[in-house]
Write a structure and sequence with these properties.
- The protein is an alpha+beta fold and 427 residues long.
- 34% of the residues lie in helices and 15% in strands.
- It has a 6-stranded mixed sheet. Strands 10-9-4-3-12 form a 5-stranded antiparallel sheet.
- A hairpin with a 3-residue loop joins strand 7 and strand 8.
Length: 427
């Protein structure tokens, strides 16, 4: 293998010099540990066992062996394979390496199989990490299913086996934090990234979310995108003193209200805010959103994390995702399961994410002409029409408190909010 290939040489060789912003972080550190000879993960004899451990079908072996042979014979691909392996599985604490090249010009239709080949390392690394944490084997087996979920996206989007280059790096996250699949959902224990602060009144258990200070708000109560004109919308303020917290409330239906409220600090206490420990919810592809499956998953999380991470009590389950945009009610019928979940949790506007519908279309809706989006399902058709009308999809966020996880109920927060509307004159 050539010793002179720098990261820039490799990216230019792939005809993608702009990948990783042109500067793959920690490249030199990874190359310092580059093995001599053929990389271990390219051993064709080991592929069947590694593929089986990752939960992939046996008919993938031929494709994976072919890609392994191609990489082993190509110095640029070999170096890049080692870089990804090192960043994702050997040194995941350095952070997820976003911005990977597509490799389309180098590998064509087999580009996704390159990333799938590297992803086979996920199973043994995750098993070792879970043994360290003392998790049951069945939790590890469930979490490994993310490989199949990622492949399912690639099969639907590109029509062949593989993993998208944008999804592969996420595997590092499972190896540095408590992050597991429990039934239908995945849960990641980590600090809350912010968006609202949440308060509870001890006297009656009322819960109220307030928009964070400086939040830019559109006239419809959703959040404005960064870079929006200074004259657009309005800005929410949040002021805390020892006597009161003054801010703008969020309706549990997912919009910030333009009526300021003052909460007496003697009566209201904080539940969580930016930096608090939460469970970030992730929804693996496939499996639907059946009510019983969702409820069961929340109950499993409610039992699992206090048992295995009693030193890190979580304040809430939170998530920001495409199907929590409150305007989804314009797209789906009222009895659709995603809308049922919306009505069971406390919605709040998340930061605008023009590309969040990638998970629906498996295409970058921030750059693709809506007229070119697939319309082979009613959901895709309706969302494509929404975008084609010139409107922007914002995605949305939610939280669910631990005391409400055991018995998921539609209207849980919206019903409780009605008295607060009258109390604070919210209309």
């Amino acid at each position: 293998m050539s010793e002179s290939l720098s990261s820039n040489d490799v990216l230019r060789d792939f005809l993608e010099p702009g990948a990783y912003g042109g500067n793959p972080a920690f490249w030199d550190e990874a190359m310092a540990s580059l093995p001599v000879g053929v990389l271990p993960m390219l051993d064709p004899a080991a592929i069947p066992a590694r593929r089986a451990a990752a939960g992939l079908p046996a008919d993938r072996d031929g494709l994976l062996r072919a890609v392994a042979a191609t990489v082993a014979s190509d110095p640029a691909l070999s170096r890049f394979a080692w870089y990804l392996h090192w960043r994702t599985f050997v040194a995941p604490e350095h952070g997820v390496p976003w911005g990977a090249p597509t490799l389309a010009s180098r590998l064509g239709a087999q580009a996704g199989a390159f990333y799938e080949l590297l992803a086979l390392e996920f199973a043994p690394r995750l098993a070792a990490w879970h043994r360290h944490l003392g998790y049951p084997r069945e939790v590890t087996e469930q979490t490994i299913q993310q490989i199949s979920a990622f492949e399912g996206n690639h099969l639907r989007g590109r029509g062949c086996a593989g993993i998208y280059e944008r999804q592969f790096p996420w595997l590092a996250m499972y190896l540095i934090q408590p992050y597991v699949r429990l039934g239908r959902f995945e849960f990641q224990l980590h600090p809350y990234g912010g968006g609202v602060s949440v308060w509870k009144r001890a006297a009656d258990g009322q819960v109220l979310a307030l928009a964070e200070d400086g939040t830019r708000v559109a006239e419809d109560g959703l959040r404005l995108a960064g870079g929006a004109p200074a004259t657009a919308g309005w800005t929410a303020r949040l002021v805390e003193t020892s006597a009161a917290v003054v801010g703008f409330p969020v309706d549990p239906a997912g919009r910030i209200l333009r009526t300021q409220v003052s909460l007496d600090r003697a009566a209201w206490t904080p539940v969580f805010q930016k930096g608090s420990t939460v469970l970030d919810l992730h929804i693996p592809a496939g499996g639907g959103m059946g009510w019983d499956a969702m409820t069961d998953s929340f109950r499993q999380a409610l039992a699992f994390f206090p048992r295995y991470h009693a030193d890190q009590p979580f304040a809430a389950v939170v998530v920001n995702t495409w199907f929590l945009d409150p305007r989804l009610a314009e797209v789906l019928p009222a009895d659709a399961n995603p809308l049922r979940l919306q009505r069971a949790v406390y919605l709040f506007p998340g930061p605008p994410q023009p590309g969040s519908l990638w998970f629906v279309f498996l295409a970058d809706t921030a750059t693709v002409d809506p007229a070119d989006l697939p319309r082979d399902t009613s959901l895709r058709r309706r969302l494509a029409e929404f975008l084609e009308s010139g409107r922007k999809w914002n995605a949305g966020s939610m939280f669910l408190l631990p005391e409400d996880m055991q018995h998921l109920r539609e209207g849980c927060y919206r019903d409780r909010f009605l008295p607060l509307r009258e109390e604070f004159g919210l209309g």
